[in-house]
Amino acid sequence: MASEGEMSQIKAVIFDLGGVLYRFRDYKAFIGLLNKAHTDPVIREKVLAWETGDVSTEAVRDILEDGIGKLPDDVSSLEDVPFESVMGKPFDKIWDSIDKLRENKVKVAMLTNNGWWTDKKEKSTIISNTEKFDVIVESCRVGLRKPDPKIFDIVLQKLNLKPNECVFIDDLPNNVEGASKLGINAIQMVDGNEDLVLNKLSSYTGIKF
């Protein structure tokens, strides 16, 4: 008997981390930080440097705290705790969909703009429960950030798939647009609406979530 997704050309789904797999503790504050980065060149430069791995969380903590909340005095202490404890609650339906995708032999990837905790650059701001992902690409490790086409190319190369064989899910419109321009099927997570995302994902994959 054929599996639900067997007739679909979709062979992988690529998930963003913050805003898709996990909520931010204060999403409005996070968006506020992005808006500041858009209008203030100094803030923008620091955020970009953090996301591409040039500087650590320690170096830009004053800016990052505006978006993700208060950090401990000793940032290095966060290297020993799961990053998800710094995030908000998980999007449970999205995580359930990952299990369903894997059951139907669809690859699962994570693509996140993130940074290093400390200047040692030993541990990055990534969740601990990564075993369900076939591919993980972190901006700080590759020196590129979404929506740069090159970082999407890295994911596609690691998956060994064509753009039209993948679906990408992100909460930020610029990232969704960037993926779409490359021919990747892209879905925006708007206001944490899991059902809307999963309905669209179902239409792409033929899998009922």
From TrEMBL:
<dbReference type="InterPro" id="IPR023214">
    <property type="entry name" value="HAD_sf"/>
</dbReference>
<protein>
    <submittedName>
        <fullName>(pine wood nematode) hypothetical protein</fullName>
    </submittedName>
</protein>
<dbReference type="InterPro" id="IPR052898">
    <property type="entry name" value="ACAD10-like"/>
</dbReference>
<dbReference type="InterPro" id="IPR011945">
    <property type="entry name" value="HAD-SF_ppase_IA/epoxid_hydro_N"/>
</dbReference>
<dbReference type="InterPro" id="IPR023198">
    <property type="entry name" value="PGP-like_dom2"/>
</dbReference>
<keyword id="KW-0007">Acetylation</keyword>
<dbReference type="InterPro" id="IPR036412">
    <property type="entry name" value="HAD-like_sf"/>
</dbReference>
<dbReference type="InterPro" id="IPR006439">
    <property type="entry name" value="HAD-SF_hydro_IA"/>
</dbReference>
<dbReference type="Pfam" id="PF00702">
    <property type="entry name" value="Hydrolase"/>
</dbReference>
